[in-house]
Every structure is written in structure tokens, then in C-alpha cells.
Amino acid sequence: MRVVAAMSGGVDSAVAAARMLDAGHEVVGVHLALSRSAATLRESARGCCTIEDAGDARRVADRLGIPFYVWDLADRFQRDVVDDFVAEYAAGRTPNPCLRCNEKIKFSALLDKALALGFDAVATGHYAQIVDGPDGRQLHRAVDAAKDQSYVLGVLTPDQLDRAFFPLGDTTKPRVREEAAERGFFIAKKPDSYDICFIPDGDTRGWLTDRLGEQPGDILDADGQVVGHHHGAYGFTIGQRKGLGLERSSMDGQARYVTAIDRAANTVTIGPADLLGVDEIRGIRALWCGPAPSGPIAVGAQVRAHGEEIPATAHVEGDEIVVRLGRTIRGVAPGQSVVLYDGTRVVGSATIAEAGRARHTTGA
């Protein structure tokens, strides 16, 4: 099989490419140039897609003896990931750029180009497993729970899963680093990069302010009283506690969290932790790994990339997925994704449109 190995310059994608070669595939290494002005050197452990990373990927490909190319997808990345990220925050939602990158870049733009050039599949260094099932290939959690990335891959369609390989899903990260060292890869100890790759200093609010400008507004308490002011509602997310810009004394010394963001009114509402609790999630843009269920199904629901899986039931209601959680959880923000599991298998996903207390006491 002719396979494009996406090589970021990190240890995971290097070992993934090597394993595909060991399995007998015809492998070509491809580094994605995603920045319009890639830095010469990595600024921090958060950054990626630097010229240094491209060089690291090339040296690994040379050691493996495979062809290597750099594909420029910077404009596509800017439009589908960066611009989308800004637009979502501007609308008062909390996006997941890593999930969007997997959906739009690595398993849409990259795979489409690979297929157009005559390749059969794409392999990446993601920590997840693909298992052949009676209804086709299924996406499962990785063996290494701490590194599992099935959540950010939950947006993949069945057709994309049919053309994907995740060679590291059955291995722990420490073992991957050991294997890299055994293979003589000089990047065996290279630090991992962290979200968000295009904000290497980690200052999301400052980065957004540079692009959206200051938009002063009021911070309200749960009764609608003004208790402070902000420079842009886009700089807040549901469940946020730090960086509210309030004097503790003005809130009687009690912790307060962001409980609501109203972009139309340009207000941010804060309140005590108990106002954050939700047990019902309504999701849009649903994707099912198989036929949509005809009635309520028992699932595990995960709402953050490294969040806890919560027992739940899910059912289709019109164009939405309604997920009823088995217990109340906090900090669920519109714009995030809810990914549904049956054991280790991903069965569906949706973008969170609304979260709150259950509207009904019967049904699903």
C-alpha cells in the first residue's frame, strides 16, 4: 500500500513512519508547512511547524531512506483553523483548534491531496486505534490513556477512517521514546508541543486582542449587577476562574467563575461554582460512526480533550443530539465537542450548541 506519513518533526510521527515502513508499505514522508511565516527556531514547547521541525522531519526521513516532501497548506490552515478560531471566540464560543486541524487539514486537505496523487492512505502519530468491525473500521481509544487522542479524532468520517493508520495506538509514550532511541532517531527526547500551536507564548487573550481589538464591556454577577469591566468578552470562556480582573473583596472573598457570555450585549456573567453545573448537552453537526440511533442509547460522554468520561444517554432530537449526563459536571462551553463512546469505541460526536440543566425528567 502507498502511504503518506505525516511527519511533524516530532518523535511520535517519526516512529509512526518507521512502523509503516516495517509493515511493508511504500512510505513517503510529508511535512505540512502550516505557517505563512515559520519561525527559524522553536520559541517554546508549545510551538510547532517551525523551520527547525521541518529539518528534523527531513533528517528522520533520510535515516529511514524514504522520499520526503514539504506540502504548503498555510493558506488552508489560516482559513480553516486560525480564522475559524478567531470567529468562534468572537461569537462567544470556545473552539478546539486541534480538533479542527485534524478535521480540516490532516484528514481533509492532506488526505484529499494524497489520494489525488495516487496514494492509498495517510499515517499519523496520533494515539488512537482503528479496529476492523462488522460495520467497517472503528475508532477506539489508545492503550496509553494519558496520551489518548480519540477525542480530537472523533470528527473523522467513516471514509476517512478507511484511509487512516495510527501505528502508535497500541503503545505507551515512554515506549515510543525508547523505540525512537533504539532506531537512532536524534529526536527521541525532543519535547512534545502543546496546544495552541499558532499561539506559542500561550497568551490566548492577548493574541485575540491583537486581532479583534479592545471591546470594553461589563462583568455582571448572577443578579445582573455590574461588578467589573472587561476589555473583550472574547477573552473569556465558560468555567474560567483566573484572570477575571476583579478584587476578591468585591466578591466577599468567594471564588467566582464565568457562567455566561453574551456577545450581543458584550457582557460576561460570573457566579459561584454551583451555577456552572450542567447535566444536559445539546449538540449540532452530529457525526455517527454508523447509522444514527433510533432511540436513546447508553454512552460515555467526553467534553474536553483530556476530560473525564461521564456515563450518559444520548438520542437524536430533530437536527440535534441530546446527551443526558449521569451526573452534573462543570465548565461545559458552547463550541467545544462532545464525543460519545461505547467502551473504548467512538460512536459519535457533535459540536456543543447549548449546555444546562435537563429540561425533562422523563425520556432519555
TrEMBL record:
Residues 207-271 form the tRNA-specific 2-thiouridylase MnmA-like central domain. Its EC number is 2.8.1.13. CDD domains: MnmA_TRMU-like. It is an enzyme of class 2 (transferase). The keyword tRNA processing applies. One of its GO terms (biological process) is tRNA wobble position uridine thiolation. ATP binds at residues 6-13, 32, 125. It catalyses: S-sulfanyl-L-cysteinyl-[protein] + uridine(34) in tRNA + AH2 + ATP = 2-thiouridine(34) in tRNA + L-cysteinyl-[protein] + A + AMP + diphosphate + H(+). Residues 279-352 form the tRNA-specific 2-thiouridylase MnmA-like C-terminal domain. SUPFAM superfamilies: Adenine nucleotide alpha hydrolases-like. One of its GO terms (molecular function) is tRNA binding. One of its GO terms (cellular component) is cytoplasm. NCBIfam families: PRK00143.1, trmU. Catalyzes the 2-thiolation of uridine at the wobble position (U34) of tRNA, leading to the formation of s(2)U34. This is tRNA-specific 2-thiouridylase MnmA. It comes from Nostocoides australiense Ben110. The gene is mnmA.
